[in-house]
Amino acid sequence: MKADLKGMSPAETEAWVEAQGLPVYRAKQLRQWLFKGLVISFKEMTNIPKGLRAQLEEQARINHLVQEKTEVSRDRTTKFLFKLEDGHFIETVLIPERGHFTVCISSQAGCAMGCRFCLTARQGLKRNLSASEIVDQVIHVKRSMSEPDRLTNIVFMGMGEPLANYDAVVRALDNLISEEGMNFSHHTVTLSTCGLVPQLKRLGKEVRVNLAVSLNASEEETRSFLMPVNRKYSLKSLVEALREFPLLNRRMITFEYVLVGGINDRDEDAYRVAALLKGMRAKINLIALNPHPDLDLAPPTPERILRFQEILIEHHFTAMIRKSKGQDISAACGQLSGKQAGCVSEDTGCEEPSRILD
Ligand code: SAH
Asked: Mapping DSSP to helix (H, G, I), strand (E, B) and coil, where does residue 44 land?
C-alpha cells in the first residue's frame, strides 16, 4: 500500500519523509504543494527534483476524487458527484453566499443514522470516508473555482454523520484548519452532528471547531420518531452534554431545527425548545423540510415557520429561517443521495440504519 500523504498529520509526514531517507524539510514542501498548491500529481511539484519526484511517486500516492458530474442550480449552488476508488459515490455542495462561498462536505458514503426526513439515510451506511477523501472534497472544489480565495467556510453537513467517523474527521479538520494545512479559520468551519453524546464530549476536549446540532424536536418521543439515534442518546443527555461543551469566547452552538408539518412545528414545540435551551449560548436555524420523492412527511406552512420563529425570538433567541439552496438540483439539506440515473452504487457492505441502536 502506498502512503496516503493527504491523510497524514505534519508529524507523520516528517516521520514518513525521514523513513524514505530524505531531509525533513521535504515534508513541509510536500504539504505546501498538497494543501496550498492543491496539486493532484507529483509532476506539478516543480521545486522538487525530477528524480526525487519519481521516487516519491513509487512510494506514495496523491489520492484524488474522481468527479463524475456537476450540476448548477438556478441560485448558482453547485453539486459535485464524486466516485470513490471502490465505486461508492459521495456528494459535495458549493454554496454561494454574499461575498464568499461555503462548501458543504460529506464525512461518510451513506449514513447509518436513519433520520426519517433525510434522503441520505435511505441508503444506509456504505462506508466511512478517509481523512484524505474528506479534505480532498475541499481541494477539488477549490481547484474548480475561478476565485479560490473566496471559499472561506466549510460545513460538515453533507452525507454522513461526522462523529460516527470520529478519527478521520478530526484528522481532516486538522489538515483543513492548521497553518501547515489549508489554513481555514476555525471560526468558519462547522461540524454538524445528530448528537452522538460520547464523541461530542471528546470533541469538546480535543478540537476547536464550531458546533451545529440537529435538534429537530423538543421532546423525546418526537425526536425518537424523527431521529432513531435519540433512542440511544436521549435529548436529555444530549442537552446536558451541550451545556458542558466548552465554547470559546462569544461562540454559540447552532441548533438546526427541520420543521415538519404537524409533527414538530406547533406553538408548544417552540415553547419547549425555548425552555430546553434556556440559558445556553444558542442560535437556532429553522429549516423547512425539503421535499424528496419518497418522503412520507410534509413541509410546514409559511405561517407556522414565522410563528415558530416569533416565539423563539420572544424568548430572546437568535432564530433564523434558513432557506435551503440548490433545491432544484437536489443539493439542499437532506437531499443528498450520491445517486444518479445509470450511476447507482452497489448495495454491498451496507449497514442497516437500525444497527446503530443495537
Ligand atoms: N449527520 C449530520 C450532518 C448531515 S445533515 C447531522 O445530523 O447534523 C445536515 C442537516 O440537514 C441536518 O441539520 C438535518 O437535520 C438537515 N436535513 C436533513 N434532511 C432534511 C430535509 N429533508 N429537509 C431539511 N433539512 C434536512
From this structure: helix
Q: Is 157 in the pocket of ligand 1 (CB under 6 A)?
A: yes
Count of CA atoms in the C-beta half-sphere (13 A) of 118: 30
Integer Cα distance of 55 and 311 in angstroms: 64
Nearest CA to ligand 1 atom 11: 333
Residue nearest ligand 1's atom 3 by CA: 157
Residue 333 annotated among the catalytic residues of the structure: yes
The answer, yes or no, to whether any atom of ligand 1 lies below 6 A from the CB of 191, is no
200 lines ligand 1 (CB under 6 A): no
Taking alpha carbons only, the member of 334, 259, 302 closest to residue 106 is 334
What are the start-end ranges of the H helices in the chain?
Answer: 10-19, 25-31, 50-59, 131-143, 166-177, 197-206, 220-226, 229-232, 235-244, 267-276, 302-314
Distance (Å, whole) CA 168 – CA 105: 13
Residue % of the chain over a pLDDT of 90: 85
* C-alpha cell of residue 263: 409533527
Residue-level pLDDT at 294: 77
Question: Which sign does the torsion angle of CA 57, 179, 192, 319 carry?
Answer: negative
Quick check: CB of 289 below 6 Å from ligand 1? yes
Residue nearest to atom 1 of ligand 1 (CA): 161
The mean pLDDT of 333-341, rounded to a whole number, is: 71
Q: List C-alpha distances in Å: 21 to 27, 197, 339.
A: 12, 44, 44
